[in-house]
Amino acid sequence: xxxxxxxxxxxxxxxxxxxxxxxxxxxxxxxxxxxxxxxxxxxxxxxxxxxxxxxxxxxxxxxxxxxxxxxxxxxxxxxxxxxxxxxxxxxxxxxxxxxxxxxxxxxxxxxxxxxxxxxxxxxxxxxxxxxxxxxxxxxxxxxxxxxxxxxxxxxxxxxxxxxxxxxxxxxxxxxxxxxxxxxxxxxxxxxxxxxxxxxxxxxxxxxxxxxxxxxxxxxxxxxxxxxxxxxxxxx
Length: 235
Hints:
This protein has helices spanning about 30-40, 55-65, 80-90, 115-130, 170-180, 190-195, 215-235, and strands at about 1-10, 25, 30, 45-50, 70-75, 100-105, 130-135, 160-170, 205. It is of the alpha/beta class. The chain has a single domain (about 1-130, about 160-235), classed as Spore Coat Polysaccharide Biosynthesis Protein SpsA, Chain A.
């Protein structure tokens, strides 16, 4: 069984909107709906779990009905941190998931995820138990500890930019989160970090530049332009 876990618990308003970015209207449809639809139409996804702040859950249920999102089975309260939100989702699935079921964990603010990325995440997780979606770095990365001077220039060929989904066998990601809590790690921003702390390998799945996270106003303008262009090409 393959379950998409959509993280929509953030309240960030970095782009200046009073509405969290995942709920901003994009051509008459909330951004999060664009994201959920990508998983809802994928034949390999069995169910969808959405992690969402309580204040937005009623709106989300209305949108699920309005847009016919048939695979959304659970809406779970978001936590104070990304780590807590993911763990809330994991705990909620206890008793429903087996150890070998797959969780495909994805940011709600990445609505342009392709079907290929979803398919390859599932296929690779079946083989390797833990995978991360990444793209190669097109730019040289500069390391600076104080933000004033360069401390190092790592080899670009060894560096990748992390995206989501990050996908795992249920038993593995549950163990990783529980061990992190025991060790006092409570605000990890990346689930792969927690799996690596168990000395388990995390394999790579090739991402896509279009699978960017909407964080700033410029990201929002780019998203609208891409969606508008896609509609024009279809017509």
